[in-house]
Amino acid sequence: MSNKKLIVIAGPTAIGKTSLSIKIAKHLHTEIISADSRQVYKEMSIGTAKPTNSERAEITHHFIDIISIQNEYNVARYEEQVIHFLDHYFQNNDTAVLTGGTGLYIKAITNGLDTLPSIPDAMNAKVIQLLEENGISHLQNIIAEKDPEYYKIVDKENVRRLIRAVSVIEHTGMPFTNFRKGITKKRNFDIIPISLHMDRTILYDRINKRVDLMIQAGLEEEVRSLSGYKNLQALQTVGYKELFQYFSNVISREEAINKIKQHTRNYAKRQITWFKNQYKAHIFSHSDVEKILNHIESKL
User: Fold this and answer.
1) Residue 231 clears pLDDT 60, i.e. is over it
2) Fold for the domain defined by 121-179
3) What residue spans in the chain does CATH classification 3.40.50.300 cover?
4) What is the DSSP letter of 177?
5) Alpha-carbon dihedral of residues 56, 187, 75, 274, nearest 10 degrees?
6) Residue 96 bridge partners (DSSP)
7) Topology of domain 5-113+183-299, per CATH?
8) For the chain, what percent of residues have pLDDT higher than 90?
């Protein structure tokens, strides 16, 4: 399947990946695969900025709404399922579009994941207990002490990755870095990697406005309906954890909304850094639709 092409559209939140991907998919008469670690959950819609029903009616999207927040899901499972999907999809199609802001999900498809040791459930439970009793800073400190190399690059606010790293460190007695070989897996398709760029000030303004639109669209009601599950790992994410604090009278409504904006901007900054360092791609302005289409056509 060496003639098969996967167009990968990456970039920070709110930069316009969804609308661009739909234009590309329409142009190529193909379908879109989401690379977003939160859009997989059925119950999280407004806060994860899923494509609208009308957008999904225009172009078929995959790997959105595939699992409940009550079920475990991770990047290894995502890699396995997407590669299986593409093996079948490319039997009758020449192109597909992968888009999202979860760098690790994109890397899993383009490069493949490192093989990590199997961790006993008891060890994972122990690390989660450490988190619950001592807070996220405790896991950060363990990694800083026992694997300073990984500490430099890990998303220090990503609870799931911290738990994974600490579990490996505690179970094996070795740094997590030892298992990150970075060996690229051979895929049965070619990859056309594209990264979107936007002036930081404009991006942050778009983020602030999008949060306001989410609130208007009913984000509070969506999060309130999930209050009974607020301790689940899937909900330890921006847009949800701040409103849970508001519902618990820890902060005011205004503070919650401002924190969502601030934390989303912080997340976008980390995404920009990650894609710059970990994702080799042709960089385009988010508005360079014609240039992007011409670039893709030149690679087909």
Assistant:
1) yes
2) Histone, subunit A (1.10.20)
3) 5-113+183-299
4) G
5) -90
6) 6
7) Rossmann fold (3.40.50)
8) 81
Confidence (pTM): 0.84
Of 101, 91, 86, 275, which Cα lies nearest the Cα of 185? 86
pLDDT at residue 1 is higher than 60: no
Encoded amino acid at 211, one letter: V
- Give dist(CA 47, CA 215) in Å, integer: 9
**Is 168's pLDDT higher than 80?**
yes
Residue 217 CA, chain-centre distance (Å), reads 22
* CA–CA separation, 216 and 292 (whole Å): 33
The span from the CA of 35 to the CA of 62, in Å, is 9
Q: Report the percentage of the chain scoring pLDDT > 70.
A: 99
- Residue 201: Cβ within 10 Å count: 8
pLDDT value of residue 113:
83
Nearest Cα neighbor of 214 from 174, 256, 173 is 256
Kindly give, in sequence order, each residue whose CB lies less than 8 Å from that of residue 270, ignoring residues fewer than 6 positions away: 155, 157
Q: Is the distance from CB of 82 to CB of 33 less than 8 angstroms?
A: yes
Q: How far apart are CA 94 and CA 123, in angstroms?
A: 44
Q: CB–CB of 176/147 below 8 Å?
A: yes
Q: Which tens digits make up the pLDDT trace of 241-291?
A: 999 999 999 999 999 999 999 999 999 999 999 999 889 999 999 999 999
Distance CA 122, CA 232 (A): 18
DSSP structural state of residue 194: E
Whether the per-residue pLDDT at 215 is higher than 90: the answer is yes
Instruction: Give the whole-angstrom CA distance, residue 271 versus residue 207.
Output: 13
Q: Span 147-168, mean pLDDT? A: 90
- CATH 1.10.20.140 maps onto the chain at 121-179
